[in-house]
Amino acid sequence: MTQSPTLPTMTAREVVARTLWGEARGEGRNGMAAVACVIQNRARNPRWWGNSPTAVCLKPYQFSCWLADDPNRAKLLAVTDRDSSYRAALEIADTLLSGRLVDVTNGADHYHTTGVTPAWSAGKKPAAVIGNHRFFRLELK
């Protein structure tokens, strides 16, 4: 996996929305909102992730859709608001950035799809399961 090279200039809204779309567009509005909650939770308790939603989204190796060799990267850079899922992602990004996003993940700061079990989640109980994603509260205390 290669971290993304320099990205075009984007607003915080675009970075968050493109992250949501790249990570969870197949999960619908609820799935994208759940990923937004992870972004929000990380930004509120920054540790090493960064202290803003943009920094959290673009932190190297945290969201696979931003990796240079991920097939979603080219798609997320090209998507426009003609795509209904991207329009939903923009609305969710607005909610997150305005401070109105309700956390549906019980404080999760990590997640993965139900089809895999990364080493970091082995033996841990999810804080929430939403669609095809399992959400975990690992770092927040």
Automatic annotation (TrEMBL):
<protein>
    <submittedName>
        <fullName>Cell wall hydrolase</fullName>
    </submittedName>
</protein>
<dbReference type="InterPro" id="IPR011105">
    <property type="entry name" value="Cell_wall_hydrolase_SleB"/>
</dbReference>
<keyword id="KW-0378">Hydrolase</keyword>
<dbReference type="InterPro" id="IPR042047">
    <property type="entry name" value="SleB_dom1"/>
</dbReference>
<dbReference type="Pfam" id="PF07486">
    <property type="entry name" value="Hydrolase_2"/>
</dbReference>
<dbReference type="GO" id="GO:0016787">
    <property type="term" value="F:hydrolase activity"/>
</dbReference>
<feature type="domain" description="Cell wall hydrolase SleB">
    <location>
        <begin position="26"/>
        <end position="136"/>
    </location>
</feature>
